[in-house]
Design a protein that fits this description.
heterodimer; A: alpha+beta; 38% helix; globular; B: 3-stranded antiparallel beta sheet; 4 helices
């Protein structure tokens, strides 16, 4: 029998009013604006855009404010919002070759055309708390140097020349889209990359780390990591030609992986690929390691049964909105379910005790 | 298609792209007033699925969506303009459509100098400054002589 329970409305309304007041915090402290979040907590904004799977810095900043800095809650808000938007179409694939590069480093080649460009990085900082930031009014300036407009080619192109690395053959196959069709396994590489790029950074990081520690080891080097701005072009149906509809910041990572060869492939370097919205370096590197680990089947490698090689394990658990939804729903009222559990346990206990008494 | 038509299309791609990427506040400053017009398609906010390529050159995959606003207008002389703008700013998309229409009329030269060239110069300046900041962080490797080789 299902018993409907009412009566929480006033409590819920008051809880939400208190939430709003707590969100604001001490009214004697100036309120944080959405543009401040967008400009000064940019990496949090980037993470919400990547995992929310919607590039819009203003919306992500608003979501962070509304969620009181809970980034998974902010991602949830963005995911909910994006379902209300009509889909105008798909862009042409972005060309990361033509990226206006802020940062570009290679761990495999010291001297490479275009050079090693550090960009605005935390690397080489001493990770000491900077108490100067606690004082207001700082407005630091970046140094500049004459820039050359020479192209910055991908590092893997150099290895390609000698046939030492596998190539990524161009193709125009329309990719599957997990926001339109439920994900089906086995998933092809395009679907896996879509799931991983919007997956939880912490989960993808741990999966990648597990491969480095030996659970599906793939011997990855960062062939190239680049962060910068690319144009997004789309074919405009009413015009019959493409235009640029915007510019986005992305992080791209290509790993170069040792490969002894297999029954089907000669010894050569193989590749893992990561591409993420915004400046999201940790995520892009982790993504490329997990991508490479999941490719064991197509490369004819052995599976050692490591979690990062298990497509179902990775793809079905990397989404933090699905995970948090299922996890957190157990705190919501389950009075009826629990009532039946109670009755079951009471009956089993009674039966067990009766059996014990009979035996004595 | 004739060569003239191709050049015309290329020009239009360039101006539509420049307006789509413009800063909405700056565009409004440069273009405070709108001519009489009919909205064929009022500004509509939507999403475009951005694609990347596996390994930068391989098969496409879906990276995630971005917000885009589009709009179509007809000026009183019948010229139709289409506007696309990154983000969710409806006045931006409306102005983009009006600019696209105006650029097809005899006001094109004036619109180009007063609005488009200013936007393009501003974007170019921002791009160049960012490239100069990046250039200042380029590593200059030098090899140190080891003791036993000296």
């Amino acid at each position: 029998m299902y018993v409907a329970v009412k009566g929480g409305e006033r409590a819920i309304d008051n809880a939400h009013a208190w939430l709003a007041a707590e969100r604001r915090g001490d009214p004697s402290v100036p309120e944080l604006s959405v543009t401040q979040i967008r400009e000064q907590l940019k990496l949090a904004v980037n993470r919400v855009m990547a995992e929310g799977s919607l590039y819009d810095p203003d919306l992500a900043a608003l979501a962070i404010k509304q969620a009181r800095g809970d980034l998974i809650e902010a991602v949830f808000l963005i995911r909910a919002y994006r379902t209300t938007l009509p889909r105008f179409g798909a862009s042409q694939p972005i060309s990361t070759d033509a990226m206006a590069v802020d940062r570009r480093v290679s761990a495999t080649f010291k001297d490479l055309p275009g050079g090693q460009i550090l960009g605005p990085t935390f690397d080489y900082t001493h990770r000491l708390l900077d108490f100067k930031l606690a004082a207001e009014g700082e407005s630091p300036t970046a140094h500049t140097a004459p820039a050359d407009s020479a192209p910055v080619p991908h590092v893997t192109e150099f290895l390609n020349r000698d046939g030492l690395i596998e190539t990524a053959e161009p193709s125009d196959t329309a990719p599957p889209d997990l926001t339109r069709e439920p994900m089906e396994l086995p998933a092809d590489r395009a679907l896996r990359l879509q799931a991983i790029t919007r997956g939880d950074e912490g989960f993808i990081l741990s999966m990648a780390y597990s491969t480095q520690r030996g659970y599906g080891r793939t011997h990855a080097f960062v062939g190239e990591l680049r962060i910068g701005t690319v144009s997004v072009s789309m074919d405009i149906p009413e015009l019959g030609f493409p235009i640029e509809i915007g510019e986005i910041e992305v992080t791209e990572c290509e790993t170069v992986n040792q490969f002894k060869g297999s029954k089907t492939e000669p010894p050569q370097f193989t590749r893992g690929y990561g591409l993420v919205f915004g400046q999201s370096e940790r995520k892009a590197i982790a993504m490329s390691l997990v991508d490479r680990a999941l490719r064991w089947k197509e490369l004819g490698e052995d599976s050692i049964g490591a979690p990062a090689q298990d497509e179902e394990f990775v793809l079905m658990h990397c989404d933090n909105i699905q995970a948090t939804g299922f996890l957190e729903h157990i705190k919501l009222p389950h009075y009826v379910d629990f009532q039946s559990e109670l009755e079951l346990v009471r009956r089993l206990r009674a039966e067990a005790m009766a059996a014990q008494e009979a035996a004595e | 298609m004739t060569e003239g038509a191709n050049t015309g299309q290329r020009e239009r791609q360039i101006w539509m792209s420049a307006i789509a990427k413009a800063n909405p506040a700056r565009l409004e400053e440069l273009m405070p007033d709108l001519p009489p017009l009919t909205c064929l398609r009022p500004p509509e906010v939507g999403a475009v699925m951005v694609q990347g390529r596996i390994g930068a050159t391989g098969a496409p995959f879906n990276l995630g969506e971005m917000t885009v606003t589009r709009c179509s207008v007809r000026l009183s002389d019948g010229t139709v303009g289409h506007g696309y703008a990154q983000g969710r700013d409806k006045p931006h998309a409306l102005r983009a459509a009006v600019l696209d229409a105006l650029m097809q009329t005899d006001q094109a030269a004036q619109v180009r100098t007063r609005i488009l060239d200013v936007l393009t110069a501003k974007a170019e300046l921002a791009r160049a400054l960012r490239a100069e900041k990046a250039a200042a962080t380029k590593v200059d490797f030098f090899t140190m002589v080891r003791g036993e080789d000296a």
